[in-house]
Specification:
Blueprint: E1 8-9, H1 27-38, E2 43-46, E3 51-54, H2 68-77, E4 81-86, E5 89-95, E6 103-110, H3 118-127, H4 131-140, H5 146-194, H6 203-217, E7 220-227, E8 240-245, H7 251-261, E9 270-272, E10 290-297, E11 300-310, H8 318-362, H9 369-383, H10 388-400, H11 410-413, H12 421-428, H13 430-438, H14 448-453, H15 474-489, H16 500-509, H17 517-525, H18 527-535
Antiparallel strand pairs: 1-4, 2-3, 2-6, 4-5, 5-6, 7-8, 7-11, 9-10, 10-11
Bound molecules: fe (ii) ion (FE2) (2 copies).
Length: 553
């Protein structure tokens, strides 16, 4: 028989607001605590599922069916209650996690010793159990007073509430810790990226660094960057696909994704987890989770940064998306800067070529002089073991060393025969004129010493400042040998170019007087190559002019 006695509230669960169902304690975890506190192994019911989730050992062998509704009410009210209150026997129900919890612990308690006759018969009848079973059960119980039980239940509820609050706080702490870790990783990633932002680093280089670092902080099987110039190719055939970690998808598969997800129209990060990726099933079955963030600089789209498949089988969320967004912002700006730099470098290269053509056009007999001087100077610099930057500077300086001849009159420049002292003074002005032409172009600042001092002599007899020895900039000393060599080997209107033997004799004789002896020595070490430069049709330049402007190396 189901108990008919109205239940009465014992104690409110005490303090704070009840936790959400997500923080429910596991029945098997809380059962041992209840047994310790109350001395009885209570059964635990899930009143939502109408299921006994923990069968208390040695519990009153009653039929539980009639108790569900009462237990559900206890769960709703979030208070411990006696759901049966009979003479000698109480049935206590304790909600395990405040309001809305589906878990309720239920247990029977004797309040006094039950005699094996009348009491046992009455209780057996009331609780619908066999009299003998009830008698055996009662024999094993230790009676506890009702008011003691009330106090104990109150303490249990308080304890559960505190434990639950601690769980909730622990959960908050873990969440905060995860957020802080995410923020730290984001800041650390930005720090590392910005410290590697030099215009000399290509977009691909920075993308590779970024991917390696991202793989350390984003739980993804693979990460990738698609570097794309939409104006160069709409179909991605010229796009670069750089990956780190597992190569979950190929560039062509990413192209499919772009179409399917309409990524080109999207300027915001896309986070796709299962079952969202299910729409892609059949197309790319290996793809389970995805973050795709556009690489933007203003409205210019340079590609995408993507994370592929969660490493632990979980889902990508805002922390991962934020990390990729920060990295993509820096990559996008870098790509924009490189594009701007390349545009400037193209314009400067065109300027230098135009100036070189203009110089050569002044005197048909010296055509190709600037290019040859540049190439001989490069070969000398290589022979002298100069670093790449210096080699590039010498190439650019060689092209521009005589730029000041633009300001020298054609009659004097092309005059056959010996120049008068006055004419020679006029020609000597080309070093200063050249300097003045270039001095305001900051990307050409490195070549100014070459333009100004390529006619200085080791013994101090040169011009314009009569510098001597190591006071002459090293690049100018190298260019001086290359310049003199080409001038002597070229035909002039008034004379044929010198023979190799004549030329070698003059240069050897000028070591330590006209020219730096170590440069002259390098000249003879590289003599065959230099002869080839002087005599052959000039092919491809030895260095890319765009790399000579002092920023991208
Ligand atoms: Fe010159
Ligand atoms: Fe020259």
């Amino acid at each position: 028989m189901a108990p008919t006695t109205p239940s009465r509230a014992l104690l409110e669960a005490g303090a704070p607001a009840p936790p959400a169902r997500s923080s429910l304690p596991a029945a098997e975890e809380v059962a041992p605590s209840l047994r310790k506190w109350l001395g009885v192994d209570m059964s635990i019911l899930d009143v939502d599922a109408c299921q006994v989730v923990h069968e208390g050992a040695d519990q009153l062998p009653w039929r539980i069916g009639g108790q569900w509704e009462l237990c559900r009410q206890v769960a709703d009210r979030g208070r411990a209650e006696f759901i049966a209150d009979e003479d000698a026997l109480l049935v206590l129900a304790i909600p395990l996690a405040g309001h809305d919890s589906p878990l309720v612990a239920v247990g029977g308690f004797l309040t006094r010793v039950v005699d094996g006759g009348q009491d046992a018969a009455r209780l057996a009848r009331q609780f619908g159990v066999e009299e003998e079973a009830l008698r055996r059960w009662a024999h094993r119980q230790t009676p506890v007073r009702g008011d003691t039980l009330e106090r104990l239940a109150g303490l249990v509820l308080d304890h559960l509430s505190v434990a639950d609050r601690a769980d909730s706080l622990q959960h908050d702490v873990e969440k905060l810790t995860a957020q802080l870790c995410g923020m730290y990783e984001e800041v650390s990633l930005i720090y590392r990226l910005t410290h590697n932002l030099t215009i000399s680093r290509s977009g691909s280089d920075l993308a590779r660094l970024t991917l390696d670092w991202l793989l350390e902080v984003v739980p993804a099987r693979g990460v990738a960057v698609l570097l794309w110039r939409p104006e160069a190719s709409r179909d991605l055939s010229g796009a670069e696909w750089i990956t780190a970690g597992e190569g979950v998808i190929s560039r062509d598969e990413f192209a499919l994704l772009m179409r399917q997800l309409q990524l080109v129209e999207r300027v915001r990060p896309l986070v796709l987890n299962r079952p969202g990726t299910a729409q892609l099933d059949g197309m790319i079955p290996r793809l389970k989770e995805l973050i795709a963030v556009p690489l933007l600089e203003g409205e210019r789209l340079f590609g995408w940064l993507v994370a592929l498949n969660h490493a632990e089988g979980g889902e990508f969320g805002t922390i991962e998306a934020d990390l990729l967004t920060s990295a993509s912002a820096i990559l996008g700006i870098h790509c924009g800067n490189i594009e701007l730099y390349d545009t400037q470098a193209d314009a400067l290269a065109s300027f230098v070529r135009a100036m070189t053509s203009a110089i050569d056009a002044k005197d048909a007999y010296t055509r190709g002089h600037s290019e040859r001087v540049a190439r001989v100077a490069v070969r000398l610099a290589q022979e002298l073991g100069c670093p790449r930057q210096l080699v590039e500077r010498l190439y650019l300086g060689g092209l521009l060393h005589d730029v000041g001849k633009i300001g020298i009159s054609d009659e004097v420049l092309s005059k056959p025969g010996k120049l008068t002292a006055e004419e020679f003074e006029h020609i000597k002005q080309h070093t200063r004129i050249g300097y003045n032409i270039l001095v305001d172009i900051k990307q050409l600042a490195d070549v100014l010493p070459i333009v100004l001092y390529h006619h200085e002599a080791w013994d101090g007899s040169g011009y314009p400042d009569k510098l001597a020895g190591e006071n002459i900039p090293f690049v100018a000393r190298i260019t001086a040998v290359a310049d003199a060599f080409d001038a002597m080997q070229s035909d002039r209107i008034y004379r044929r170019g010198l023979t190799d033997e004549q030329l070698d004799t003059i240069i050897r004789g000028g070591a330590g007087k006209q020219w730096d002896a170590q440069v002259v020595s390098a000249f003879f070490s590289a003599r065959e190559d230099i002869r080839h430069i002087a005599k052959s049709e000039l092919g491809e330049p030895p260095v890319d002019l765009k790399h000579c402007f002092g920023m991208r190396k």
